[in-house]
């Protein structure tokens, strides 16, 4: 760029890309072929990773950033934004992903955490970050560290939408509660949320997060996606739900349409027909606590 | 005066908020039958490939192209500019547009998100003070055909804003920077066109 007044990597530019993804579906893909299917189905972005969460869950072991060759092959295949995951606190994986020219980094609890105390200082990067949150305080702490987009965590790799529901309800409910507080009550609210007062006051005044809020973790059907949109999500991530189902192409298409027409049951009904098997799934209540990914991150 | 905002995907709420601020009545548009109620339309930022796909799947693309041909004023930002372009370079396989602007647009012309940027631009048609413009994986207008007119260029000469009769397009996003002048300029076109009456 020759522009003398150009600013790269500003908050506005980082948060702006998330704004452009609103009303859209971000799909997990593990190879170029899946990325092509996702783009053709109308994904607004793809998440490039080696194993979808359902496989990470069933195969176990340490889950890390994907192979750069895999990420390159997916970037080469599609023209929509490509996201990739770094481990919580693993700022070198994030440096590598930025060097690979991914469009967004997901500092993700789906991978094994690299630091059980600190998250990545995301202000140090030009590339924007999305981070998971289960409640408002966690979301605001991530934004304080520089996250430009938040996704509620849900419980990845289960196909059970109940945790996603719990987290979006919690975040929305806490935002609404803040809006109802008087000004002098916000100091204690900030203390309770363990988040900076300025950010808490901003949320109280505007009635929403200062960044885009997507939902993730357990969305497996068009109805699940529409449910999250009716709950006030700006968009959805679908991980294992598409490529672990009987007919990924049809399901991807259907979920994209259900997100756009989330408030029109006749459209959701019509796109829900003939999709074949949904992913089998695991009930979150059957998961022993150490296997709950949403409890990673703090 | 009722202005539609295409609400298939993208930052349509930001456009709706700017238009309401300027006193326009706003309708979010997702279905062909909703087009009959509007005197102008904004196509927001987002993913052009997604908007194209949904516009065709729900039967909106053809009536919209017809409305543009018969003079519906339309303003497109970023993905919206691509939707209004007669020719797209670097689209996905099979990508189509509504068309109307005699231009060729290169999709995602600056590269990955780390090359997205903000800068000040001179836009003489909007007055002397510069427009602060945000480019997010933005397109550029590579060829301005004889029927279209460039309204703004980057310092390297690349065209990033165009108009042609009732159509207006920008590579960047006034809707997220508090810059209202493009929308005001567009609403003047809508008022002058008096489309549908």
TrEMBL record, chain A:
Any idea where the PdxS/SNZ N-terminal domain is? 11-216
Active site: which residues?
85
Q: Which Gene3D superfamilies match?
A: Aldolase class I
Keyword Lyase applies: yes
Q: What is its EC number?
A: 4.3.3.6
User: Which enzyme class?
Assistant: lyase
Q: Which residues form a coiled coil?
A: none
Swiss-Prot/TrEMBL catalytic activity:
aldehydo-D-ribose 5-phosphate + D-glyceraldehyde 3-phosphate + L-glutamine = pyridoxal 5'-phosphate + L-glutamate + phosphate + 3 H2O + H(+)
Keyword terms: Lyase, Pyridoxal phosphate, Schiff base
Q: Which GO terms describe its molecular function?
A: lyase activity
List positions binding D-ribose 5-phosphate: 28, 157, 218, 239-240
Q: What does this protein do?
A: Catalyzes the formation of pyridoxal 5'-phosphate from ribose 5-phosphate (RBP), glyceraldehyde 3-phosphate (G3P) and ammonia. The ammonia is provided by the PdxT subunit. Can also use ribulose 5-phosphate and dihydroxyacetone phosphate as substrates, resulting from enzyme-catalyzed isomerization of RBP and G3P, respectively.
The protein depicted here goes by the name Pyridoxal 5'-phosphate synthase subunit PdxS
- Identify the species of origin: Cryobacterium breve
Name of the gene encoding the protein in the UniProt record:
pdxS
UniProtKB/TrEMBL annotation, chain B:
Q: Which UniProt keywords apply?
A: Glutamine amidotransferase, Hydrolase, Lyase, Pyridoxal phosphate
Quaternary structure (record) = In the presence of PdxS, forms a dodecamer of heterodimers. Only shows activity in the heterodimer.
Reaction(s) catalysed by this chain's protein: aldehydo-D-ribose 5-phosphate + D-glyceraldehyde 3-phosphate + L-glutamine = pyridoxal 5'-phosphate + L-glutamate + phosphate + 3 H2O + H(+); L-glutamine + H2O = L-glutamate + NH4(+)
- Name the residues annotated as catalytic in the UniProt entry: 78 (nucleophile), 173 (charge relay system), 175 (charge relay system)
Protein EC: 4.3.3.6, 3.5.1.2
Q: Per its UniProt record, what NCBIfam families does this chain match?
A: PLP_synth_Pdx2
Lineage, top ranks: Bacteria, Bacillati, Actinomycetota, Actinomycetes, Micrococcales
Q: Which pathway does UniProt place it in?
A: Cofactor biosynthesis; pyridoxal 5'-phosphate biosynthesis
What's the name of the protein? Pyridoxal 5'-phosphate synthase subunit PdxT
Q: CDD domains from the xrefs?
A: GATase1_PB (cd01749)
Residues that bind L-glutamine, according to the entry?
Answer: 46-48, 107, 136-137
